[in-house]
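Hi all, posting the design record for the shared folder.

TITLE: backbone redesign
STEP: 1 of 1
STRUCTURE INPUT:
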């Protein structure tokens, strides 16, 4: 919960980067990262905002893909694609690194991320609960790039929203999921483990990355160790 801000101080809340992203001036390799940070004010008790950052090989800056709901007040899309520090605080909240890939093969993943992001079907609408929201967007993109093996936290409310589609892959793009408009469902995957969604709140256990998943609290377990190289063969071994 540390780092959340109230609705009164969001204009002055810190957005400084935390050093989780490699410096593009000294890292020429292609990089993809997925982040999550608690949202502003009381909503941060329940959920996080997620986004995806990419840096093509030899690029001198990152491109971040995310959904920002309040943009719909003045624009016809909530999809934001911009250059910014990928690891900056989200209005005071420190982000957590959810997934990362670097090196050989990542350029192709970046192209697929861009294509999936720009084909997101709910860019013109936003509903904080149960979705579609920023986490719905991140899950949409991740399903198109399962090599990232990204396990979004249980506090990413909206990740299970899939519109009228009741059966599909888990948000990671692996395994399967049954979801009723993001309000109730089941997920089973070698990336996420096993999750139950009730009214948008996720409970679960992941024996493949030993951890518990709890509403409000999030993931409880040892710190993740990321495999930075985009090794599709290794990723396939984790598919159900």
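Okay, here is what came back for every position:
SEQUENCE:
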């Amino acid at each position: 919960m540390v780092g959340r801000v109230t609705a009164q101080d969001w204009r002055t809340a810190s957005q400084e980067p935390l050093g989780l992203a490699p410096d593009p001036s000294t890292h020429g390799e292609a990089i993809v990262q997925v982040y999550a940070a608690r949202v502003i004010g009381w909503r941060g008790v329940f959920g996080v905002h997620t986004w995806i950052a990419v840096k093509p090989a030899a690029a001198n800056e990152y491109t971040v893909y995310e959904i920002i709901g309040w943009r719909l007040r003045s624009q016809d899309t909530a999809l934001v694609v911009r250059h910014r520090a990928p690891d900056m605080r989200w209005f005071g909240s420190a982000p957590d690194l959810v997934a990362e890939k670097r090196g050989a093969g990542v350029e192709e993943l970046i192209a697929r991320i861009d294509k999936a992001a720009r084909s997101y079907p709910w860019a013109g609408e936003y509903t904080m609960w149960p979705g579609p929201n920023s986490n719905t967007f991140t899950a949409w993109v991740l399903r198109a790039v399962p090599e990232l093996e990204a396990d979004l936290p249980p506090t990413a409310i909206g990740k299970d929203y899939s519109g009228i589609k009741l059966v599909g892959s888990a948000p990671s793009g692996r395994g399967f999921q049954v979801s009723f408009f993001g309000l109730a469902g089941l997920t089973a995957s070698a990336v996420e483990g096993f999750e139950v969604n009730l009214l948008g709140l996720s409970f679960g256990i992941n024996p493949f990355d030993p951890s518990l998943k709890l509403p409000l609290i999030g993931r409880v377990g040892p710190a993740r160790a990321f495999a930075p190289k985009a090794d599709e063969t290794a990723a396939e071994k984790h598919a159900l």
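COMMENT: The longest helix spans residues 106-118.
Let me know if anyone wants the other runs.
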